[in-house]
TrEMBL record:
Its main location: membrane. This is Bcr/CflA family efflux transporter. One of its GO terms (molecular function) is xenobiotic transmembrane transporter activity. Gene3D superfamilies: Multidrug resistance protein D. The keyword rRNA-binding does not apply. Belongs to the major facilitator superfamily. Bcr/CmlA family. GO terms for biological process: xenobiotic detoxification by transmembrane export across the plasma membrane. It comes from Celerinatantimonas diazotrophica. It is a multi-pass membrane protein.
């Protein structure tokens, strides 16, 4: 393995790339109620728009990265992210923000999508699982700092300053990409064509093992995004938490993710990914069930809600790393396209969450709770589906 691929700088750049989705959403979570009052529109649509752009664009960038390498799409993506952030900062209404959030998302998605591909380019399955756990540990700083910084920004500045900060982060990231090595050598690249791209995606969708792990992650993230999009209104409006303090409740969950990510680094050396995933998804389902019950019977108040969500969210430290590793390992020759499908479904899951929250919003935590429970149950069911044999895979290839 190239020494550059194991250097602290390589790790730092990958961590930042993986955090781009979190940075783009979490930083402005505390400002959402304020933006909704000032702009007189449904600010949750800006989350939906971002996730739509984030999902669709990955399906475009994936085949491009398999044909032209990982670095070129990253450079173009960072420029689009900077432009989108600037547009959001200058927007005067919800419609304008929605448009620029899509532009921002088309650029931001190259970060986590290509970081996943570069890890699979560079490491074996066990090493990749450990590497993903390390990345999820460090990238968890973004969801911790995002709401905290965002809360302090709107305390002293206008909400558009948040997007100016994102523009600055994009600029710094663009400069750092010059130090990033290319992980896909020319001899391993594939010729780009629209028919070839369609065929590759068809192969991925028909691969039972790939889709099993990918859908397990997707359903879990529908539940997780229900919390991320719904929590500002649950904590700030329903429970009366000050916007500048909301970040601390959000940070509590990320500390749980960080702890489980580090634990997963050691557990993958002793147990199979399948065993770890089963336990983690079942625990997450029990946590979602507890949340739904305490919300429905109004027991325990904010403490009961926060503790149930902590247990649920902590499992992300195991589920995200291991499903990603298992899915990519099942299709090693289509890493870029596979990473695109994973990312498209993973972040597209937030579209489902935000639309359900917007449609069924009732001013209480109940909508968030039942969405989390239903889709975590779906994640369990998907994971327990029979594992495909080699003959099954060859029959669908």
């Amino acid at each position: 393995m190239n020494d550059k691929l194991s250097s602290p700088l390589f790790l730092a750049i990958l961590c930042t790339l993986m955090a781009f989705a979190s940075l783009s959403i979490d930083l402005y979570l505390p400002a959402m109620p304020l933006m909704e009052r000032e702009l007189h529109g449904n600010v949750e649509l800006t989350v939906t728009a971002f996730l739509i752009g984030f999902s669709i664009a990955q399906l475009i960038w994936g085949p491009i990265s398999d044909a032209f390498g990982r670095r070129l799409p990253l450079f173009i993506g960072m420029l689009m992210f900077i432009a989108g952030s600037a547009g959001c900062a200058l927007s005067m209404n919800i419609a304008q923000i929605v448009f620029w959030r899509v532009v921002q998302a088309f650029g931001a998605c190259t970060g986590p999508m290509l970081a996943r591909a570069m890890i699979r380019d560079s490491y074996s399955q066990t090493q990749a699982a450990r590497m993903f756990s390390t990345l999820f540990f460090f990238m968890a700083v973004a969801p911790i700092l995002g709401p905290l910084i965002g809360g302090q920004i709107i305390r002293f500045c206008h909400w558009n300053v948040i997007f100016e900060v994102l523009m600055l982060i994009g600029g710094l990231m663009f400069i750092s990409l010059f130090a990033l090595p290319e992980t896909l050598p020319k001899e391993n690249r594939v010729r780009f064509s629209f028919t070839g791209t369609f065929h590759n995606y068809l192969v991925l969708v028909k691969n039972r093992n790939f889709m099993r792990y990918t859908l397990c992650l997707t359903f879990f993230y529908v539940a997780a995004y229900a919390y991320m999009a719904g929590s500002p209104f649950v904590y700030i409006r329903y429970f009366g938490v000050a916007p500048q303090n909301f970040g601390w409740l959000f940070a509590l969950n990320i500390l749980g993710v960080m702890a489980m990510s580090m634990m997963n680094r050691h557990l993958v050396l002793r147990y199979s990914l399948k065993q770890l995933l089963k336990v983690a998804v079942i625990v997450a389902t029990l946590a979602a069930l507890i949340l739904a019950v305490v919300v429905k019977i109004k027991f325990g108040g904010i403490i009961a809600v926060a503790m149930a969500i902590l247990l649920f969210f902590s499992m992300n430290g195991i589920i995200a790393a291991n499903t990603t590793t298992a899915a990519l390992d099942s299709v090693p020759s289509l890493t870029g396209s596979a990473s695109a499908v994973i990312g498209a479904l993973q972040y597209g899951s937030g579209i489902v969450s935000s639309l359900l929250l917007a449609f069924f919003k009732d001013g209480t935590p109940w909508t968030m709770a039942w969405i989390m429970l239903i889709f975590t149950l779906a994640s369990v069911v998907t994971l327990l589906l029979p594992h495909a044999t080699r003959s099954d895979i060859e029959a669908t290839a």
